Amino acid sequence: MRSMLMQRPPRLNQVVRRDDSPVAKLVTVSAFTILFVAHMLIGHPVEARTQVDRILAIVNDEIVTQSDLKGFVEKLKSGGLVDDQLVPDDATKQNLLKNESAALQKLIDARILDGEVRRQGLSIPVERVEQEIRSIAKRNRTNRDGLREALTGQGIDFAEYQDFLKTGLERQALVEKSVTSKIKISEDDVVAAFMAEGKSAESQAFEYSLAHILFLSSRGGADAAKKRGAEALQKLKEGAPWDRVAADFSEDPGFELGGVLGTFKSGELSADLEKAITQAKLSPGDYLPQLLPAQGGFHIVRLTRRKLIPDPKIEKEKDRIRGMLGERAFRRQYDAWLEQLRSEAFIRINK
């Protein structure tokens, strides 16, 4: 059969020489085409069938095939190389494994992103890919060869891994330019989110610089410490300079000139001390007119400086809240941006 089919083209050439009219040419070409297809189907019936790959979707000038979708789903199942830009979390992954139509939409998104990368000229050079490979190897405490060996052990071809990184870096550059760089989270946004979580924020918060004169109970007991404290207070009330009284009376083992105690933000002082300072409405240079309990005894406290600062309760939560708001804004703006790209693209899904 194969030798017979191979002998037919010469006879067709003879037909062309006898009649060079357009009709004859058309008949000749058509006949040759039929014979060629017949040869492919009859001579290699199984191979012809296995090479057919159904086109599931057309995206601008690219296609998504059945084998593309199958390969994507297999990677999801096996934990293979999948861009987290497309599959950001496990919930998304599980949904894609259950919903083949949703998985196809992700591949369409990938074609759109890659097309936009090309349109904007955001191709990543080989040197940048190699830099990323070295960085990944370093984070995993190995070198390039060690990383290649580890990937091979997982059944991942190194060239495929390089292409995966290149594509991921290009998409990352595109998203950074088109979405991430436009997200702004203000201080007001952070405070509003903090309040929305049911937490309260002070209208004002301060940083206090304090000095003290300490009286230790270990020196004759608590009553004796109080008595020495009362004597020092009296000296201050009579107009004696703070620094002199502190030098004469303070029993602080780590005493510094002026009785420096330190700098503290709202919430870092003991509740009693912060309440006393707030209620007394002290100005810098003023001291509390009564002895207060202190570790190991009692002390007289002086305010040397007060500075208005952001509420420390919010400061402690700021990074977490800003990250949360940033992620929400990113997902919202990314989805809107991608939807806009989809609306501008030619997309045809074959049913």
Briefly, what is this?
By secondary structure, the protein is α+β, with helices and mostly antiparallel strands. Helices cover 60% and strands 13% of the residues.
For the sheet with most strands, the description reads: 4 strands, antiparallel
Computed CA radius of gyration, to the nearest angstrom: 39 Å
Residue stretches low in confidence (pLDDT < 50, at least 5 long) are 1-44
In the sheet with the most strands, the strands line up as 4-3-6-5
CATH class of the largest domain: Alpha Beta
Beta-strand content bin: 5-15%
CATH architecture classification of the largest domain: Roll
Helix content: 55-70%
Question: Count the strands?
Answer: 7
Oligomeric state of this protein: single chain
CATH topology of the largest domain: Chitinase A, domain 3
- Helix-strand makeup class: alpha+beta
Gross morphology is elongated
* Count, helices: 14
The structural domain count equals 5
Order of helices and strands: HHHEEHHHHHHHEHHEHEEHE
Whole-number average pLDDT?
Answer: 84
Spatial separation of the terminal alpha carbons: 38 Å
Structure description:
It is a single chain. This protein has 351 residues and is of the alpha+beta class. It has five domains: 50 residues; 63 residues, no CATH class; 57 residues, no CATH class; 60 residues, no CATH class; 106 residues, Roll (Chitinase A, domain 3). 60% of the residues lie in helices and 13% in strands. It is built from 14 helices and seven strands. The strands form two sheets. The chain has a four-stranded antiparallel beta sheet with strand order 4-3-6-5, with helices on both faces.
